[in-house]
């Protein structure tokens, strides 16, 4: 019991007390889900305030606001972007006058001003700039990153940090992501539960439309745009390098696509759709971001305070998917750890990969960028016996370049294991090539 108020609530100054009233209610009494050993009161509130959290990425505004209003007081934020005028419709911590400034800095200042007592430390740069020593200082890491590459990097880094002798080296990763009306929130206990690499196939790149569809019978407005983008430009403006940010170029593609769409009686081609298809833009919807960020921050709160069961406790559900594009549907399930996961799996197990043995090495390496289970853009590859192709250093690249035009069956045996590395990831990928 707090003596000054007699309510069991901490003695905060008047306005402060009102702001945190409901939060304090949760933290100062036992609930149906709290452990009998859990101690409500000042210690729980203090623990929450002291827990050092890291937030990062495209859901940043929502996550920062939610964490600050959930009682966290020591928050760090990483974001490499500067504010663009197109962000202002949904990234509500930014104003017209902030255009051009770093998001992390502006967001930190805004939230510090609005929520008294919270300290937000911004870092303007990539999450990849920081090392294990840096990530070690946090209790929880909340990521709303918009790039799968950055997700895979932080995942691999956190898994790599785990030291069996040191329980404090295991940092829970809360990951949220959205794509239009769809989204997901998940919690990962590195090495203990299924990681992002185990679940990589959940992030399949969008299926490419076969070239023959584009060339012969387009069915959707997007097909006409892709046709203008891939085929018409190549035929008519080969000497000009397409610049996605040049309005003249986009207008040219738009008009080509529109004419083609009219020939096939397909409605719906617009300038902004052309821009979207060419730049591969997935629309960010403010409300979906809000839903997913809220779910991530609730998990952070429960993890930090032990007031309620949280998503991702080993052996329980760890993945919540939200689908809003066809009415509303949510589903929470347990994604299982995979023993052949290159990040958290058994070091000795290679992930099987079905390949066409008639592919050249070049074709195979190109296909790795598209394959949902790999998504590697700059792969180097070696078999058990030899280096097949290396991107770096230059002399090894020259030496291995002739292999690129050789067929896979000339280079490896059916069932042979290969090791693939990619400069974007701090790890090696082991695959077992199985001929189709
Ligand atoms: Zn894994």
UniProtKB/TrEMBL annotation:
Keywords: ATP-binding, Ligase, Nucleotide-binding, Ubl conjugation pathway. Residues 353-436 form the E2 binding domain. It comes from the Eukaryota. GO terms for molecular function: ATP binding; NEDD8 activating enzyme activity. One of its GO terms (cellular component) is cytoplasm. It catalyses: ATP + [NEDD8 protein] + [E1 NEDD8-activating enzyme]-L-cysteine = AMP + diphosphate + [E1 NEDD8-activating enzyme]-S-[NEDD8 protein]-yl-L-cysteine. Pathway: Protein modification; protein neddylation. It is an enzyme of class 6 (ligase). InterPro entries: E2-binding (IPR014929), ThiF/MoeB/HesA (IPR045886), ThiF_NAD_FAD-bd (IPR000594), Ub_act_enz_dom_a_sf (IPR023318), Uba3_N (IPR030468), Ubiquitin-activating_enz (IPR035985). GO terms for biological process: protein neddylation. Its EC number is 6.2.1.64. Catalytic subunit of the dimeric E1 enzyme, which activates NEDD8. Belongs to the ubiquitin-activating E1 family. UBA3 subfamily. This is NEDD8-activating enzyme E1 catalytic subunit. It comes from Clohesyomyces aquaticus.
């Amino acid at each position: 019991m707090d003596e000054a108020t007699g309510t069991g609530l901490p003695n905060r100054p008047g306005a402060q007390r009102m702001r945190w009233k409901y939060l304090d209610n949760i933290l100062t009494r036992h609930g149906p889900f709290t452990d009998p050993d859990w101690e409500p009161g000042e210690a729980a509130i203090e623990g929450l305030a002291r827990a050092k959290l890291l937030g990062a990425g495209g859901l940043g505004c929502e996550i920062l606001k939610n964490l600050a209003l959930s009682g966290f007081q020591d928050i760090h934020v990483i974001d490499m972007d500067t504010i663009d005028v197109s962000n202002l419709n949904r990234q509500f911590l930014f104003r017209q006058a902030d255009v051009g400034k770093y998001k992390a800095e502006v967001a930190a200042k805004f939230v510090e001003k609005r929520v008294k007592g919270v300290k937000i430390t911004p870092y303007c740069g990539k999450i990849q700039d920081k090392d294990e020593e840096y990530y070690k200082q946090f209790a929880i890491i909340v990521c709303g990153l918009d790039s799968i590459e950055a997700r895979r990097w932080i995942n691999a880094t956190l898994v790599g940090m785990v030291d069996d002798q040191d329980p404090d080296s295991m940092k829970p990763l809360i990951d949220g992501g959205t794509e239009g009306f769809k989204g997901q929130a998940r919690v990962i206990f590195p090495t203990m539960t299924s990681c992002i690499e185990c679940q990589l196939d959940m992030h399949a790149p969008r299926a490419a439309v076969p070239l023959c569809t584009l060339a012969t019978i387009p069915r959707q407005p997007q097909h006409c745009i892709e046709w203008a983008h891939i085929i018409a430009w190549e035929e008519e403006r080969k000497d000009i390098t397409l610049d996605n940010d040049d309005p003249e170029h986009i207008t040219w593609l738009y008009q080509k696509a529109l004419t083609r769409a009219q020939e096939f009686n397909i409605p719906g081609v617009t300038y902004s759709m052309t821009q979207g298809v060419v730049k591969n833009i997935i629309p960010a919807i403010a409300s979906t971001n809000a839903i997913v960020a809220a779910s991530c921050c609730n998990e952070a709160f429960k993890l930090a305070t032990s007031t309620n069961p949280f998503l991702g406790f080993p052996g329980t559900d760890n993945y919540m998917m939200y689908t809003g594009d066809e009415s509303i549907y949510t589903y929470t399930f347990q994604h299982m750890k995979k023993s052949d996961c290159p990040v958290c799996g058994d070091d000795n197990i290679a992930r099987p990969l079905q390949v066409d043995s008639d592919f050249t090495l070049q074709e195979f390496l190109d296909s790795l960028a598209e394959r949902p289970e790999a998504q590697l853009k700059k792969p180097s590859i070696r078999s058990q016996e030899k280096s097949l192709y290396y991107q770096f250093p230059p002399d090894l690249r020259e030496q291995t370049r002739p292999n690129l035009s050789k067929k896979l069956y000339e280079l490896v045996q059916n069932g042979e294991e290969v090791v693939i590395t990619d400069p974007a990831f701090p790890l090696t990928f082991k695959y077992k090539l199985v001929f189709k």
